[in-house]
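Postdoc handover notes: sequence design on the structure in folder B. Input tokens:
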């Protein structure tokens, strides 16, 4: 018995993927598990759901059994005390690869590979520990936490664009082949596709070219099996081309007039493990897994060590502490399963807990320069309890106090905060990203805010309000549509025949992208003066839903002015921000409580205006294309053809309470960028929460239309950024 246990241990620790574990003579095999030993679940790749290390300790105990019989029947209650990740630190090139491993250390001095959950603060990590570095240089954390919980460790990864990439890994060799599914039940003539995946020496599963064969039916080169007319049990085989490495699946063909009865194929006992005090009770449940893939209850015979168990699965722990087993075997079969029971030793006090790892939280933060964040270090101890622990803090890219308060330095980048438990080498770290606030942040991914095809007049049902009686026509439309918006100005009128503006609210955003298709009548002349017509406007969260567009805290315009050709124009007004007590005074170096589009100074250098409209003051700032885009005669850019117009506004940032010169205004005509300004001041520091949230379709000619003329609009889209 002693020699057989040692052989069993050596067999389990073998690296051969095709090794077969032979039960010991006299041992009861329950669903592929050997009774009296820690529960194992084995498949072709020798996966163990309980640690081989425990089995090794069981074998060690058996070797001692010749000197003294075990009184409790349990195993040595050695416990996992720590997990270590190797390598502890590495410098890598962007997108390079590195394999990390996690070793577990037990209280009896043994160690070995343990199942862990990998997480990373940057880059990506496979379940087998294969890490791929981020494309962005910086410092990142790789962390492994034991799947049973409570233990973990971390490693530091520095991604450096100057680092040499690691040497390429050796060419992997095919080790084994897996055919899936492993079994199938079919009716005559029914088809089932099987797949073959190779298991390679680098622990990665990959497809492999195979030769298929079968009995009881036919199988194609792609693994598609067609059941023959005869009922029975048959086989589908696959061999890797040019090798003897193969695998097979079983196929049951049944008579379609009388389908087979489901057969019990496995048994599951839950919970799989418990820890209880002497004399305490816990009920276990056995559930059968059947050949029709349905779980059903099944009659079982219960047995147990270290206590008693009733016929209904109620286990009562005995008086002695230790590791024990509860078993269930389906009545009349050898199919079974087991669960582990740890009965606590309450006769003597537990050993003092030892610090096994340290957790720094939060694991990662993003801060502005000069901002602060407090980190906390919590120790994980050998009794599975988390407690505070005295640590020594250190940091890069800023400073950290003795209480864990980190203050970011002035430079953007990726940095690290680290804590080491005093008097030990046990530590953990957190990643800190300090934003680069010297330039505006990159825009977020596109989000569609508004989409209008003008295919029907149900504008109100799609969220539009104010004047929803706009005119649509089937006479003009883009290819692929059926209708478009028609805005006809009668001679002398200031608004189209359908009246005033139509509005819609959308999710607030600091940047807006407008896309639409437009066509003008062949006699289109616009306003006939050097300003107007207005066409489309954006308004912000600082104003109400019914405000007039010319007197707001910010309105931006997309339009053109026709001077023997339509010249694209982007412009802005913020009349409600004007300090009328200090008109035409430059307040830009005095206060942020001022207008940005004129009347109170000019910060970004673009020409502004300041004028009265009745008793009210108005202002304006605009950007024109260098030449006309909508041409008067047939040919490229002809105004009486359909053209694609795009416009983009991005609000400038606020830093230190002051508006920065980094707002963006852009205009494209048929894909060609005609207006591009990236140093615009749209808002001052007192409007730090301002966002775009309202859009107006508001064609308007203030001096009255010089002729009867028409514009058509189709396929209008508003997004947060340009796709």
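Designed sequence:
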């Amino acid at each position: 018995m002693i020699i057989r246990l040692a052989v069993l241990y050596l067999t389990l620790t073998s690296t051969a993927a095709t090794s077969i574990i032979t039960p010991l003579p006299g041992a009861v095999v329950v669903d592929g598990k050997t009774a009296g030993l820690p529960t194992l679940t084995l498949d072709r790749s020798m996966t163990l759901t309980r640690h081989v290390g425990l089995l090794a300790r069981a074998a060690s105990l058996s070797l001692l059994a010749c000197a003294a019989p075990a009184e409790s029947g349990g195993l040595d209650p050695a416990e996992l005390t720590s997990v270590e990740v190797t390598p502890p630190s590495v410098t890598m090139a962007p997108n390079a690869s590195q394999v990390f491993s996690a070793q577990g250390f037990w209280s009896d001095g043994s160690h070995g590979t343990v199942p862990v959950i990998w997480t990373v603060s940057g880059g990506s990590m496979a379940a087998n520990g294969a890490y791929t570095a981020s494309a962005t240089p910086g410092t990142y954390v790789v962390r492994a936490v034991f799947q049973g919980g409570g233990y973990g460790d971390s490693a530091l990864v520095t991604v450096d664009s100057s680092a040499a990439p690691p040497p390429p890994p050796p060419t992997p060799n095919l080790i084994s082949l897996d055919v899936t599914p492993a079994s199938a039940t079919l009716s005559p003539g029914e088809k089932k596709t099987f797949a073959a995946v190779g298991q390679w020496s680098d622990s990665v599963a990959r497809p492999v070219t195979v030769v298929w064969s079968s009995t009881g039916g036919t199988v194609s080169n792609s693994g598609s099996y067609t059941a023959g007319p005869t009922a029975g049990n048959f086989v589908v085989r696959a061999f890797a081309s040019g090798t003897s490495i193969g695998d097979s699946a079983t196929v049951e063909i049944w008579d379609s007039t009388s389908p087979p009865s489901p057969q019990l194929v496995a048994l599951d006992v839950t919970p799989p493990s418990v820890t209880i005090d002497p004399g305490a009770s816990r009920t276990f449940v056995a559930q059968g897994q059947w050949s029709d893939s349905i779980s059903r209850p099944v009659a079982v015979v219960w047995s147990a060590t270290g206590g008693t168990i009733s016929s209904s699965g109620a286990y009562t722990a005995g008086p002695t502490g230790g590791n024990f087993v509860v078993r269930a075997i389906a009545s009349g079969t050898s199919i079974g399963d087991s669960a582990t029971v740890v009965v606590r030793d309450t006769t003597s006090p537990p050993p003092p807990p030892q610090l096994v790892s340290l957790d720094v939280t939060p694991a990662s933060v993003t801060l502005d320069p000069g901002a602060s964040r407090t980190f906390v270090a919590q120790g994980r101890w050998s009794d599975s309890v988390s407690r505070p622990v005295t640590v020594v803090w250190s940091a890069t890219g800023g400073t950290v106090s003795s209480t864990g308060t980190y203050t970011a330095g002035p430079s953007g980048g990726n940095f690290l905060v680290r804590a080491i438990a005093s008097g030990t080498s046990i530590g953990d770290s957190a990643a800190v990203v300090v934003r680069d606030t010297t330039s505006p942040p990159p825009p977020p991914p596109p989000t569609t805010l508004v989409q209008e095809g003008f295919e029907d007049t149900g504008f109100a049902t799609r969220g539009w309000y104010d004047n929803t009686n706009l005119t649509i026509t089937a006479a003009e439309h883009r290819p692929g549509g059926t209708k478009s918006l028609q805005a006809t100005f009668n001679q002398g009128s200031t608004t189209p025949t359908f009246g005033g503006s139509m509005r819609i609210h959308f999710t607030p955003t600091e940047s807006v992208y407008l896309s639409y298709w437009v066509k003008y009548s062949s006699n289109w002349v616009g306003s006939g003066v050097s300003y107007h017509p207005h066409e489309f406007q954006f308004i912000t969260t600082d104003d109400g839903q019914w405000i007039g567009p010319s007197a707001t805290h910010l309105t931006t315009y997309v339009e053109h002015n026709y001077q023997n050709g339509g010249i694209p124009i982007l412009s802005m007004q913020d009349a409600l921000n004007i300090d009328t007590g200090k008109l035409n005074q430059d307040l830009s170096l005095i206060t942020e409580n001022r207008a940005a589009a004129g009347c109170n100074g000019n910060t970004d250098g673009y020409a502004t205006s300041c004028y009265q409209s009745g008793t009210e003051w108005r202002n304006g700032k605009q950007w024109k294309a260098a030449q006309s885009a909508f041409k008067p005669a047939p040919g490229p850019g002809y105004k009486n053809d359909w053209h694609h117009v795009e416009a983009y506004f991005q609000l400038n940032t606020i830093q230190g309470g002051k508006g920065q010169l980094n707002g963006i205004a852009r205009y494209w005509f048929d894909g060609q960028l005609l207006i591009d300004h990236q140093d615009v001041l749209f808002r001052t520091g007192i409007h730090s929460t301002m966002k775009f949230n309202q859009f107006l379709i508001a064609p308007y000619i203030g001096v009255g239309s010089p002729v009867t003329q028409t514009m058509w609009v189709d396929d209008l889209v508003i997004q947060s950024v340009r796709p």
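Context for whoever picks this up: The mean pLDDT is 86. Don't rerun without checking with the PI first.
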